[in-house]
């Protein structure tokens, strides 16, 4: 079984589900989506075991290729596994066109699997565009609502700006080696190497929401909750970090690659943590958290431990998908994403308990799995610099702060009893419970024999652990939880200092992104008007001239046309009069004659039904005689 079947299977299943699922209810749609993703997982396992590479020749000089790798194998399994509960949740949670949303989620899985298995920049570009198109479609799911199209366009344009780097990198690689294969990156040198590495870093930073591209995640929050859950956990935002981890050995040939990646990752982790700590919108808090967590993964890649970044991607994907589902349930209850409107601990105690597990993992509280992977990143940073390790530990303290704020504000106990909104459906509970259980199971990573066995199986090198660093990290986590509890001890005032608003808006990046998107759209409209003036105006004048000429000719030919019409009318009038005088016998006589013939035939047939056997034999003999007569005539003719 070829590797091409891995991405093709979710695409075909998406088309089948969209076409055949027109009459499916939420239960049937959720079960169908689950079966489709289980089938995709089975095909993934069979295909990965069957071969390590596959290629398709596009032309004599271009070909598309897939190849197994450690990073690719991890994400090829991770993406459909995370999508499974998300698709189930989407089928029962979304009321507006759930079939379309679930089908698009399946297509998104296929696009991401193509991306992670690509073995060259040409195939990567195809997958990169498909991932971008799917994410835009998911964000734009409720396109009829005011403001959502502009938000989707903002997210699309900002990421597209970074995507240009991948085209530049592919051009540099082809110019230097005559091919697009990842292995060919090792053959580059000089300026082409610098251009290729810079282009890949630019594209990865835009996709993974690293500075200065982080604020596009806020625009992406216009999409439905299931789209945000998959987008932030294992697909769109993960694509950039995956690319760096996959190509780290080749990219490290550029001396500036590792320092730049470490700087961008640490800056994003710290600033993203501060942005999340002052957010009052549940989904935006989680979005800023996503940017910060991927910043930690970037530090691991820059420190020379891309495998550690992949392990943190696994633990983060499970908890972050679950937290977005939690936010959707809270919003459904109060009809708002404002954390100040929630405090639903008394109303949704079961959801509150599952959310607590996920928030403790996000906060980095041992012995949950996300805490272990975060400590591995801190240990990797310590191999580069003690100050860098302390920066990672401080970012971990910020994670504890905003995770505590989310849990306390969303599911703290309130004296007000809220009865509006519906309770979570079965599919929503199953999806959330599954992700919380996986998060708990990942706590086994703290057991050294288990984590070492996993690392050896995946071929991942783990950094040397530092006891003092773990103590510092735990202290900062405890401090972050304490500050979070203190900050949420009572309802926050509506009026906030101006500096908090600036920080919550990514230090002005959100406004900048909106300005860039609006400027691009205004420029596009200006080009459209210019096109109308320059190219359409002559055509319009020509059309008007032709129309005037036609009118002149029409006025000159009115008499001829009118005379012809009058003559035709007179001819048809004469035929009608003739039919009225002479054709009545045909119109009335023919049906009457047929009726009389049928009546006579009926009487004759009735007379033959005498019940006497010799009459029937006589008719049979006559029929056979007629039959043989026709045969003889045919033979002679």
From TrEMBL:
Give the chief site where it resides.
membrane
Alphabetized UniProt keyword annotations: Membrane, Transmembrane, Transmembrane helix
**Transmembrane residues, as ranges?**
6-21, 28-54, 74-94, 101-119, 164-185, 191-209, 216-244, 256-278, 309-330, 351-372, 384-404, 425-447, 467-487, 616-636
**Locations listed in the record:** Endomembrane system; Membrane
Which InterPro entries does this UniProt record tie to the protein?
ND/Mrp_TM, NU5C-like
Q: Does the keyword DNA repair apply?
A: no
The record's annotation in Pfam families points to: Proton_antipo_M
Tell me what topology the record assigns in the membrane: Multi-pass membrane protein
Superkingdom of this entry's organism? Bacteria
Looking at the record, the residues that make up the NADH:quinone oxidoreductase/Mrp antiporter transmembrane domain are: 118-396
Q: What is this protein called?
A: NADH-quinone oxidoreductase subunit L
